[in-house]
Amino acid sequence: MAQAGKGTKRAARARILVVEDEGIVAEDIQYRLENLGYAVPAVASSGEEAMKIAAETRPDLVLMDVVLKGTMNGVEAAKQMRDLFNIPVVYLTAYSDDNTLQGAKVTEPLGYVLKPFEERELQTTIEMALYRHEMERKLRESRQWLATTLRCISDAVIATDTQGRVKFMNAVAEDLTGWKQEEALGKELSRIFKANHSILISRDGREISIDDSAAPIKDDHGDISGVVLVFRDISERKHAEDALRQSEERYRNVVERSIQGIMIHQDSIIQFANPAFARIFGYSSPEEVIGINIWTDLIPPEERELLQARTAACLRGESIPVHQAWQAIHKNGTRVWIESGALRIMWHDRPAILAFLIDATERKNLEDQLRQTQRMEAVGKLAGGVAHDFNNLLTAITGYASLLLLKLQSDDPLRKDVDEIRKAGERAAALTSQLLAFSRKQILAPQNLDLNQLVANMDKMLRRLISEDIDLVTVPEKPLGWVKADPGQIEQVIVNLVVNARDAMPTGGKLTLETANVQFDEAYALSHVEVTPGPYAMLAVSDTGCGMDEETLSRIFEPFFTTKELGKGTGLGLSTVYGIVRQSGGHIWVYSEPTRGTTFKIYLPQVVESVRPLELSKGVTDLERGSETVLLVEDEEIVRNLVRNILQRKGYTVLEACNGNQALQVSESHSGPIHLLVTDVVMPGMSGRELAERVMTVRGEVKVLYMSGYTENAISRHGFLDPGVAFIQKPFTLATLTRTVRQVLDRTALYPIS
Q1: What pTM was computed for the model?
Q2: Which of 90, 120, 320, 339 qualifies as a FRET site for 533, CA 20 to 30 Å off?
Q3: How far apart are CA 408 and CA 424, in angstroms?
Q4: End-to-end CA distance of the chain
């Protein structure tokens, strides 16, 4: 009873349908089942009735008699229950012959109970049947789960037996191989799965990149019963990897070959740098700069406060200037100008600064050169304008002083005072001449020059200018290319530089004059404002004197700027040098440091053609008289009156006009010959050159003498006197005017204005 009780408790939930056509037997079975603790929802006496009840109640088990009355026997009913409802069946039969058993086997029953039976036998058969049915259900679910999983995963799966024949393949494997499972079953794996070095060749010939792996299938005893092959299409991944690799390569090329410096710093330490960044700061490779502190190693103290504030703002996500310029420390200790931009990035999951930099040092130098050039041009225009106006006044002062001296007796007490007036005017004229030289408004008479010969000819004079404790050395390069320049003006340049060098060495030293052939290429021209590529002759004047600081260097060519004591310099010496060199088509550079001396280098373009300056006839006395008719045109009345008086005193007939239009009227109304036109160059309305051209169209025999404080290129090309043009520079003396007028009138040929 105890065992029965245990069985009752164990099988209390099982519901069993009894199918038996013998009523007494059916009742006995029902009684026994219920006594064992099973539930009997119904008893059926035929196959048809059993099917109906099974459909309605879905019992856990059916005890089915094999032989039933009616059209449906137990075997047929069991078959339908298995197919339709998957209900397990245990047969009850009084027959144990082979025919009965063979017929029953077709329905795959879970047990047999032969009548008559014992309760223990019945219970054991029922429990075993229920257990087996439950295990089969779980196995079926497991297989269904596995099959569903294999169908749904993105990997392809093929399973084989021990002979390597295909037993299973999922839908993904079908797609990749091009084989359907029903076609592949039983075929050798090598026929279905054709792969070569991670490339699957499908049935239609496609090549597919794959990853694959295989593992043995083992049974309960650990024996291998087959192989499972898992593989996947990695074509997209391959494409993505290739694209990523190409992208990384492009990025690497852009970063590593960029001329722009790129750097990442985090917590003030450089974490990444490209080659350009290393080059900008003078390091040999990016590895050399990684790990250094930007604030202590690259940025000078005066720049740190502003840059640190902007860096902190950038790390907070605030906007900062897109471009900022600052000075940095080069590896060699010098300063370089940097222009940079920065943005906040994440570096190893922490905020960092990505910076882009360019070396702006060369551009800054060019900008400084341009500003200096523009400043010198502006000062030059002002100086030229002042000199022009002042020259007209000086012409009158010195001219009338000279006329007055002619009237005074040699013992007249006023003669000394008038002579001082004349001398003061001449000294003022020298100053205006220097201003004109600086402003490049003077007239030059260029010749082919050998600078070596010019320096050699000046040797004795230069040695008289310097003290005995200064050693003068010349270092000429031979042969030296010739230059086109006014020899007198170049001599003035050399004298001014030598005097400056002398004054910089009050206790003695060494003064060196050096010449050399120099070739300026395109690269040099790009880094130096106004320089044209080509061959140049270089003249250098170097001293071992006190030198100059940067502030002084930036102003040395400005008019009236001097570092000498009051009364010891006009401040026009180097301004004159600058103007003459620039007007001669050259360039001047100065190199100097305090206590290390100074070097001025002058570069004049080399030439091959010959330029002949205007040669005036010799042997004419200073105050030669004349009787010719002169048309005088000058808009400044004080100058016009002076020239008229001088020429009339020397016997000339003077027709005068204050502008070009009036001069044309005078020329037209005068019936006699006009031998000489003396005209100012710059006048309101009509220039002197235009006037001369119009007068010469009517009076072809007239000769022309121009006069001016400066030319404004009216009768010159870039300041060089055109061949055949007579010109007198204001202010002029009485002797210079009368001599020049006589020389122009005495020419035997006409000189066209060109």
Answers
A1: 0.39
A2: 339
A3: 19
A4: 148
The yes-or-no verdict on residue 494 having pLDDT over 70 is yes
Q: Measure the CA dihedral 317/323/329/332, to 10°.
A: 130
Walk me through the domains of the chain, giving residue ranges and CATH numbers: 2-144 (3.40.50.2300), 154-234 (3.30.450.20), 248-359 (3.30.450.20), 364-439 (1.10.287.130), 447-605 (3.30.565.10), 629-745 (3.40.50.2300)
Q: What are the DSSP calls for 527-564, one per residue?
A: TSTTPPSEEEEEEEEEE-S----HHHHTTTTSTT---S
The rounded distance, in Å, linking the Cα atoms of 666 and 659 is 11
Q: What is the pLDDT of residue 676?
A: 95
Tell me what the pLDDT averaged over the chain comes to. Answer: 82
N residues, the chain: 754
CA pair distance 241, 249, nearest whole angstrom: 12
Strand ranges (E), 31-127: 43-44, 61-65, 89-93, 111-114
Helices (H), 218-266: 235-257
148: enclosing H helix or E strand = helix 119-152
**How many Cβ atoms sit within 10 Å of the Cβ of residue 143?**
10
d(CA 618, CA 47): 158
pLDDT of residue 179 exceeding 60, the answer is yes
Tally of CB atoms within 10 A around 140? 11
H/E stretch holding 232: strand 224-233
What would the two tokens of residue 54 be?
């099974």
φ, ψ of residue 738 in degrees (nearest 5) = -65, -40
Q: What is d(CA 390, CA 421) in angstroms, rounded to the nearest whole number?
A: 15
Q: How many CB atoms lie within 10 A of CB 623?
A: 14
> For the segment 275-288, what is each residue's pLDDT rounded down to a tens digit?
999 999 999 999 99
Show Cβ contacts of residue 741 under 8 Å, excluding neighbours closer than 6 positions: 626, 630, 647, 652, 676, 678, 705
Tell me the sheet residues that pair with 485: 447
Rg (CA), the chain: 59
pLDDT at 566: 46
* Core vs surface per residue 553-590: b (16+ CB within 10 A) or e: eeebbbbebbeeeeeebebbbbbbbbbbbbbbbbbbeb
d(CA 496, CA 267): 57
User: Could you tell me how many helices (H) and strands (E) the chain has, helices first?
Assistant: 26, 29
Residues 211 and 471: their CA atoms lie apart, in Å, by: 87
Q: Pick from 431, 386, 709: which is nearest to 572 by CA?
A: 431
Give the distance from CA 219 to its chain's centroid. Answer: 69
Helix (H) or strand (E) holding 137: helix 119-152
Tokens 């006044």: give the residue: 393
| Number of alpha carbons in the 13 Å side-chain half-sphere of residue 110 | 25
Give the DSSP per-residue string, 258-308: -SSEEEEEETTEEEEE-HHHHHHTT-SSHHHHTT-BHHHHTS-HHHHHHHH
